[in-house]
Sequence to fold (323 residues):
Amino acid sequence: MDLRFVTLHEIDLDNSTFEVRKFAGPVRLRESLARLGILDPPWLRQKAGRHIVVDGFKRLRWAKEHGAQGAVCRIFPEDCDARELWTRRIEKKLFEREINLVEKAQIISTLLGLFQHGEIPRFFLSGLNVANRPEVLRQWALLSAMGADTLELLASGAIAERAALEVAGWDERSRDAVLPVLEALRCSASIQVEIVEHINEIAMRDDKVGADIIETPRTREIMESEELNHRQKTQALREFLAELRHPRLSASQKRFQREIESLGLPPSVRIIPPPAFEGNNWKMELSFTGPEELRKIIGSAGSLVESDRTAAIFSAAGRRSQD
Fold:
């Protein structure tokens, strides 16, 4: 493997055989190149005519944009096996500071093309923090095959990894419908997964696709609202999907909330029903700052607990659990 200066005229910058695209602007790399130039020599595969880039696409394109004649490069011989080059390239990528979701998907897709399932080097998958299961690897490969607009969205960091994998096998229309919603909501990874799972469960139950659920008038009303901020939109969408997924339970929760509010409990007191109103394990939660406040809370809550109004809540909950 030689290390020598190569003119840009000798390099085929249009050959993307070994490219792993970032689908996001390389801001920090460009800042470093502007200050210091090319520090890490690009890798080239020797070829009669013009060499093929193995690693360093962005660095070499930056050099061309800025009128450089060439760069010092590492030259691999033409007979160097493509699998060997890819193995080295991927291992180098694993040690980069950040690999985004799309780069990760491309790497896994490449590994599936180079190796049989049982042959993929374990340190590659552990370095990528990916489970070595065929169904998981297939999901990643599906992500890498999406269109450029979707890949740019995934590369932006707005979509959580688990949520992206959940929608990998969806039809294109459904993916195009749900991913911009997740981007606009700017919610946590766990909430993104919750939203995606609810959409999928409702669609499967009703023999529909995800787009049929997320493109309803109520969803559009939530997302287009000028009165709600992104957190309020997130909560409104979660409640709407929960109602669609579990309509009877949602109705019960609303009735219970109305009944609790009618009691006039102090703000520092909460009555917590059993999950899904099934079972007899009820809880009361008290919030207080000291013994004096605790005595007042217990006094005011005690009179309410002994009244018939509280008994009505339990009898109503009992009827719901029998429905």
In short: The first strand starts at residue 2 and ends at 7. The chain has a mean pLDDT of 88.
